[in-house]
Amino acid sequence: MGIVVGGAKRLLWTALAVGAFTVPVAARNPEARSHASAAASHEVDIPFERFSLPNGLRVIVHTDRKAPIVAVHLWYQVGSGDEPAGRTGFAHLFEHLMFRGTEHYRDAYYGPLQRAGATDVNATVTPERTNYMQVVPSTALDLALWMESDRMGHLLGAIDQKALDTERSIVENEKLQRRGVPYGLVWEQLSRSSYPPGHPYHHSTFGSARDLQAATLADVQHWFRSWYGPNNAVLVLSGDVGVEEARKKVESYFGHIPSAPGIARSSVDVAKRASSTRETLSDQVPQARVHRTWNISARGTSDFDQLRVLAYILGGGNASRLGKRLVHSGRLATDVTAEAGGQLGSRLMVVANVRDGVDPSAVETAIEVELQSLLKEGPTLDEVQRARTAMRAEFVKRIERNGGMDGKAEVLAGCEVFEGDAGCYRRSADVVASATPDQLVRVARRWLGQGDHTLTVIPGARAAFAEEAEPVDAVSHPQSPSKTHRAAAPAVDRSAGPPFPESYPELRFPVIERVALSNGTHVILARREDVPLVRMSYQFPVDPAGTAGLADMAFSMLAEGAGDYDALAFAARAESLGAELGSSVEVGSGTVTLVSLSDTLDDSVALYADMLRRPRFEQAAIERTRAAKAGVLREEAANPQRLATSLFPALLYGLHHRYANAFNVQGTVASVEALRRAELVEFHRAWIRPERGTLVVVGDTTLQELVPLLERHLGDWSGLGGIAELRIDDRLPAQAGPRVFLVDSPGARQASIVAGQLVTPSSDPQTLAFEVANSVLGGSPSARLNMNLREAKGWSYGVISNAANAPIARPWRVVAPVQSDRVAEAMAEIQREIAEYASGPAPARQDEVARFRDSQVRRLAGSFETREAVASEIADIVRFDRPDDWTTQRSNALRHLDLNEVRAAAAALDASRLTWVVVGDLSRVEAPVRALELGEVTVIDSQGARLQRGEAIPSGHPVKRAGSFRFHPPVSCCASRSDRLPGGSH
User: Fold this and answer.
1) Which helix H or strand E contains 394, and what residues bound it?
2) What's the rounded Cα separation, in Å, for the pair 408 and 387?
3) Do 966 and 974 contact (CB within 8 A), yes or no?
4) What is the dihedral of CA 973, 978, 983, 984, to 10 degrees?
5) Terminal CA-to-CA distance of the chain, rounded, Å?
6) Using one digit for the tens of pLDDT, what is the confidence trace for 536-574?
7) pLDDT 10s digits, 432-458
């Protein structure tokens, strides 16, 4: 993955529905109320209508007809901050239980939705809210409303002791998985340190194991009856639905549900701190990391939005003040970011990854110097203008989607729940757009002048994270019978079960238009006019057998200075235009991307052309990028799950195969450090050439507007010298015998298991059948592997299987993070499941094939909401030389897949020749794994070097360390009900 410049960095929260610290605030924030339902017109808006049912349910409807889908988001105003004494973690545990089935559908919640083609089926918990979400075909809206209303009104009869015990085990595995990664203890420690005992934000959403074990069915019933009533919820429908249709359906499905008792909420303390504090945390991390935080004003205030602008100036963009001082000029950090986010418990946070060999105190000093400069002199007008433009562009990009965790439904729901006005984003946008340097310096002095907390993580042994002795951080809410709401008589016969649609929307993929530029590039345009954005993706073939990490480094360097701009000037120019420029590399392909606002497209394309044609490859920028990539690679090596998946492809292919490194696009620390400027320059000359490229454009433009623009900036671009030869060998190599590779992770309470083999390239005619076969076995939450190891046994937070998308033989793998005391048993179950499915007594059944085949067909209709999704589909059309109507052909082909075709595709899996990689505490897992006798066992280190008998992977062998500098907020997520379970990557 390459570097992106120009876009706002995401640290903790997304742009508007921000946060993991969210308390219902309607009627308690006078400033929020004063701005309610702003009437002023906005350039980019989310028009909506609002109504309430007699039982108190608030409903927000946004109509968007661009795709035949509806996002259904249901938010309850309850979270971990509402947990009673001795029951920390209960809000998260209960959110898991909401997926166990209902009184009228006693099976996994996501089953009917998946069959109907739903996507983004998930849920999250924060200290102040719990939200449930799904995106469904428009004809399946009744199904989604039936499912959501059935668990709101008819849950308790379906929850028994077995369900409670299983979900308790799953939650514990989720906690182990999140804590077991580098820096995995940071968020819980920051909550404890930033807020005093007794404050609702003091403890994490995970709570304590002691409290979870103490939870009873009586607690479940009390929690449900107290909080899960319609008068404590907001339902948002965003997409292909009108308000009158929505009103009739919502009244029918939700109107009969009685209100919950009224809840008397106390005012929320933002816990502004009076003095500075600091602490150090030792962890198994590759580099030190400095976190500096302030508790700040609540969401819904002008101060909060102005602090968001200030945070962007301080560290939100590549050309920010801290970026300049720490990353560019001082070379003290490999990356730095700052962001303000949250709801009532809001924080501004600066996070810096300390460069190898640098004392963390030097980073802290540099942060303090920049902060004091900002407090004394304030930002410049240019800084403010760039921040405002970048934040506007970020919001425009965000609201392409209706659903998901940051789309329009999320914006509307967050505004209604936390500010009592679904249109609060307008007020927030107005504050940002009108921010001045004087306003920002005043708000900085008010909130950042004192009261910060610094947490520095240093490499070393992982610190013990003891539970606090007493459940002091508990709250109570007096309840009273509701007198203001009433329920209607039931209008739906629920004994008939979920109402499945009689028909489904047809796929509507944008028309593809083609033209050739005078420089030899083929241009493909797909028009999309819903928001004023244009996305360009210049795609170039790359040799999969090339030097490990070379293509990734070369493409990354394109954004590190080009033409007349050095790296900082390039980033500043992109921010001033609201443009995002970046790159990515995958097997056999590299892409250079521009996302531009329509009104700055000409200037943005000029910068894009510089990036493509005249990258500077300055040595200082190379060294800085090299250090950043080395930091990412070292962090990946310290992450057990990432390490297992990274080692896997090279072990499958064999060390001497020409494609041993093909899936390791980032290389290793050794291979990245060995790269020289001359190699990068030559790669650009040989591979990034217009006559080899295809430019995919999706957005608010036409060929009549686009072609003259492209000719002006790119028409005279020509490649120099000879063209490098590209040879693709798509044959399937002979499979090695069964092998097991073990990597020690001392003290780990969870192990990461990866098992699999090579399968044919994505271009193989049987690929569609194999995708369905994989879905049945492990490719979805309701697949056999996940239902066994997670839902039935509770040994894992989630298990998934998938195959890479590539023009050469590709790894198919099962990824299973499992508690350490169940590793051998889990491996035996995986082996058995694959063997019985592929060639044994339990092949795919007709009902399974129909369910997953139909799901894939039905979800296609809503899969292309965003420019990125459309561009990605077209990119695959180019990459695999498919016809322009491939998306329609694929839909038709899936419809006609039969059971025998799927079984034949599944037979390609050979359980007797699997390669296994297990990363865990070998003192606990090695002996039982060896006793399984699944194949020759070899112990290797994190770089692949052999520690015991067996074939060695030389130290420094280029294995992929995928990933980037990301932070995970303290949001507990139910268990990835979508198709992306923990452990899997697509």
Assistant:
1) helix 381-398
2) 22
3) no
4) -160
5) 14
6) 999 999 999 999 999 999 999 999 999 999 999 999 999
7) 999 999 999 999 999 999 999 999 999
Residue pair 38/423 in contact (Cβ under 8 Å)? The answer is yes
Name, in order, each residue with C-beta under 8 angstroms of 97's C-beta and a sequence gap of 6 or more: 155, 159, 163, 164, 167, 220
Q: How many residues are present in the chain? A: 986
Report whether 117 contacts 861 (CB < 8 A): yes
> Which amino acid is present at 64?
D
What secondary structure does DSSP assign to 483-526, as a single string?
A: -S---PPP-S-GGG-----S--PPP-PPPEEEEE-TTS-EEEEE
In whole angstroms, give the CA distance from residue 118 to residue 102.
19
Paired tokens of 874 = 């077209």
Apex 668 CA angle, 664 and 671, nearest 5: 105
What angle (nearest 5°) sits at the alpha carbon of residue 191, between those of residues 188 and 130?
80
Residue 429 to residue 346: CA distance in whole angstroms: 18
Q: Return the ∠ at Cα 224 (arms to 221 and 225), rounded to 5°.
A: 85
How many whole angstroms separate alpha carbon 523 and alpha carbon 704?
A: 13
Alpha carbon 128 to chain centroid distance?
A: 21
What is d(CA 367, CA 363) in angstroms, rounded to the nearest whole number?
A: 6
Q: What is the DSSP letter of 106?
A: -
Query: With left for phi above 0 and alpha for psi between -120 and 50, is residue 933 left, alpha or beta?
Result: left
217 vs 213: CA distance, rounded Å: 12
- Tokens 């009873």 belong to 216
Q: Are 501 and 116 in contact (CB under 8 A)?
A: yes
Q: What contacts 660, CB < 8 A, 6 or more positions away?
A: 649, 650, 653, 654
Band (978; pLDDT cuts 50, 70, 90): very low
> 274-296 as b/e, with b when 16 or more CB fall inside 10 Å?
eeeeeeebebbbbbbbbbbbbbb
Read off the tokens for 603.
């200037």
The alpha carbons of the chain give a radius of gyration, in whole angstroms, of 27
**How many angstroms separate the CA atoms of 18 and 410, rounded?**
9
Neighbours of 480 (CB within 10 A): 9
Q: What does the pLDDT look like over 345-401, one tens digit per residue?
A: 799 999 999 999 999 999 999 999 999 999 999 999 999 999 999 999 999 999 999
What strand order describes the sheet that includes 589-597? Answer: 512-516, 522-527, 694-699, 533-541, 589-597, 580-586
- Cα(342)–Cα(413) distance, rounded to whole angstroms? 15
| Strand, coil or helix: 564 | coil
Contact 321, 271 (CB under 8 A): no
* The two three-digit tokens of residue 557, written as one number: 């360097």
Render pLDDT for 254-275 as a digit per residue (tens, 0 to 9).
Answer: 999 999 988 777 677 899 999 9
Confidence of residue 417 (pLDDT cuts 50, 70, 90): very high
CA dist., res. 287 & res. 44, Å (int): 41
Output the pTM of the full model. Answer: 0.90
